[in-house]
């Protein structure tokens, strides 16, 4: 029989791997993939996917809270001491973000049901107990419904929200689109398309024509074909029985080659093709910096897309460690950036990867950015981030959409950073009332007396002599777009409004 020490060693090795005893985990950023879903297009997650996500969330509860789903204490090298010791959700300790997409959002929520399972409520923390007001005047003590289901705050990003670039940096990004289009035209891509053509056509015999047309059967559709087969391999016994794992793996391998080709370019590491990965990497730094500086939130959990993950694999130089990183991360895979502290209060970042939610998937530590050490000092991490990431919306707008300002592709969130908008601001500071010009009132231009008009003042202010009323209408329209943007603009990073304490959550909620 195993003695308790042996058991706890086994638990330790399951929960994560090795670092010297004198580091402590003080915060984390987790970037995860959604779990099992129907074939695309869909906005659903399957019961299988929900179950796997919930169990995965529970594993992270063990890792960071040192508590099981049933609130039994468990040893974990990565326990974050400042987290609520009963595993109770507090808004100041946890922050989550996902794109406004059904499948990803549902996957995100299922994970949270494992990270923050239903609970009897705060049992020992007096401040939290008082702030939930369970007592009624007639002496009855109420309990929350659904066995104490926890209401966790989630931040879902609208595609046009200023923060959306962090999690979906490849969307609304003209230069990323062009880089991908160019990759399709490369010799490497075209060769693969030619040499695999017969193989794809041979799939005609085993793929139903009503789902996949013969003209669709080529390398250019490698990912969609793999997705169709992978989903049906899991869910459709008729189709599953017509295939075999060798065939599925062949289709998988080609789809990995396809996706890698359009995600990352080794000879142009920070090229436009990996803008999505560069953006989430910037987000990792931004949010971890807040965790480090403000010690709130302690856990950041973002859910995103596989294409961003392929890009991230290249930027972190994980593909140099294992060719497996040129492959699709499995459903529910997680990229983990743990913020560590040594006994002298120095900060480090340690990266771990877990390739999915099967029982055999382990947290594995990898060195990143070509380093040989799995523990990277905060300063070195920051240096690498500067080199490989996009940190601000302004930089993202420059990188993505330079040159498309006047086109319909130009995202409204970028308007404040456009030269057109800056020109409009300058006109305004010269006394031109763009809003009334838009409504047909040109009086602020004082056109009658052309020598002293605001128009010539504006020209003198560097706007250029070619500024006409037509141009002003364009500038004015953009200006109004900007006003809409600023109204919906939110704080980039959530920060607790008061120092870390049990009551900070109720204080933060005052405006509700
Ligand atoms: C007290 O009030 C609650 C809520 O109105 C009610 O459900 C409960 O039955 C009351 N208890 C007694 C003992 O009256
Ligand atoms: C990678 O970048 C190089 C240099 O910019 C370029 O010549 C090549 O076509 C790119 N490859 C792909 C697949 O985009
Ligand atoms: C791949 O080859 C097929 C068959 O020649 C062709 O129809 C398709 O356009 C090619 N795809 C790309 C992306 O070039
Ligand atoms: C499985 O796939 C076949 C072929 O496309 C289809 O006819 C059948 O309805 C599917 N079965 C289920 C349960 O979806
Ligand atoms: C797997 O399926 C392919 C395509 O139908 C077939 O050619 C191959 O012989 C099968 N392999 C095994 C081991 O059954
Ligand atoms: C790091 O985080 C702190 C706390 O949120 C913030 O004040 C500071 O501006 C951040 N630093 C940068 C460079 O963003
Ligand atoms: C790649 O993954 C396979 C299966 O998970 C594993 O057996 C193999 O050792 C891995 N290869 C490398 C180079 O890490
Ligand atoms: C993750 O799993 C997938 C599917 O099994 C595999 O193709 C990929 O190479 C794996 N990635 C790593 C880093 O092991």
From TrEMBL:
GO terms for molecular function: phosphatase activity. The chain crosses the membrane at residues 458-482. It holds the Pfam family His_Phos_2. It comes from the Eukaryota. Keywords: Membrane, Signal, Transmembrane, Transmembrane helix. InterPro entries: His_Pase_clade-2 (IPR000560), His_PPase_superfam (IPR029033), Histidine_acid_phosphatase (IPR050645). Residues 1-20 form the signal peptide. The keyword Signal applies. Gene3D superfamilies: Phosphoglycerate mutase-like. Belongs to the histidine acid phosphatase family. This is Acid phosphatase. The lineage of its organism: Eukaryota, Fungi, Dikarya, Ascomycota, Saccharomycotina.
């Amino acid at each position: 029989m195993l003695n308790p020490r042996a058991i706890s060693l086994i638990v330790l090795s399951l929960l994560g791997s090795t670092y010297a005893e004198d580091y402590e985990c003080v915060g984390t950023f987790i970037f995860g993939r959604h779990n099992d879903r129907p074939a695309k297009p869909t906005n659903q997650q399957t019961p299988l996917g929900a179950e796997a996500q919930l169990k995965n969330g529970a594993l992270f509860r063990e890792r960071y809270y040192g508590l099981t789903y049933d609130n039994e204490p468990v040893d974990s090298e990565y326990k974050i001491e400042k987290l609520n010791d009963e595993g109770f959700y507090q808004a100041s300790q946890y922050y989550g973000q996902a794109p406004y997409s059904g499948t990803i959002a549902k996957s995100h929520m299922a994970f949270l049901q494992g990270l923050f399972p239903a609970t009897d409520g705060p049992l020992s923390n007096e401040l939290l107990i008082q702030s939930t007001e369970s007592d009624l005047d007639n002496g009855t003590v109420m309990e929350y419904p659904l066995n104490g289901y926890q209401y966790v705050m989630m931040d879902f990003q609208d595609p046009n929200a200023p923060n959306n670039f962090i999690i979906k940096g490849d969307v609304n990004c003209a230069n990323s689109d062009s880089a991908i289009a160019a990759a399709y035209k490369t010799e490497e891509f075209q060769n693969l398309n030619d040499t695999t053509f017969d193989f794809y056509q041979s799939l005609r015999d085993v793929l139903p024509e009503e789902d996949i047309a013969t003209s669709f059967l080529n390398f250019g559709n490698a990912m969609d074909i793999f997705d169709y087969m992978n989903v049906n391999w899991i869910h459709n016994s008729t189709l599953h029985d017509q295939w075999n794992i060798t065939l599925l793996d062949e289709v998988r391998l080609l789809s990995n080659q396809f996706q890698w080709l359009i995600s990352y370019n080794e000879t142009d590491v920070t090229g436009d093709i990996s803008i999505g990965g560069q953006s989430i990497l910037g987000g990792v730094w931004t949010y971890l910096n807040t965790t480090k500086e403000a010690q709130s939130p302690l856990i950041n959990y973002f859910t995103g897309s596989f294409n961003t993950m392929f890009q991230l694999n290249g930027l972190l130089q994980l593909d140099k460690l294992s060719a497996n990183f040129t492959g699709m991360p499995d459903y529910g895979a997680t990229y983990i950036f743990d913020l560590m502290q040594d006994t002298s209060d120095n900060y480090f970042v340690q990266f771990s990867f877990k390739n999915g939610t099967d029982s055999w998937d382990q947290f594995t530590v990898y060195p990143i950015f070509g380093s040989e050490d799995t523990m990277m000092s905060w300063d070195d991490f920051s240096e690498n981030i500067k080199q490989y990431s996009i940190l601000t919306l302004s930089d993202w707008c420059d990188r993505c959409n330079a040159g498309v300002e006047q086109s319909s592709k130009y995202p409204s969130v970028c308007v404040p950073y456009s030269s057109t908008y800056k020109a409009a601001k300058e006109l305004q500071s010269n006394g031109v009332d763009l809003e009334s010009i838009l409504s047909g009132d040109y009086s602020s231009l004082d056109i009658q007396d052309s020598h002293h008009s605001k128009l010539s003042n504006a020209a003198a202010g560097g706007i250029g002599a070619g500024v006409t009323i037509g141009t002003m209408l364009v500038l004015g329209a953009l200006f109004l777009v900007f006003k809409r943007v600023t109204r919906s603009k939110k704080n980039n990073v959530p920060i607790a409004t008061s120092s870390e304490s049990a009551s900070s959550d109720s204080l933060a909620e005052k405006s509700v």
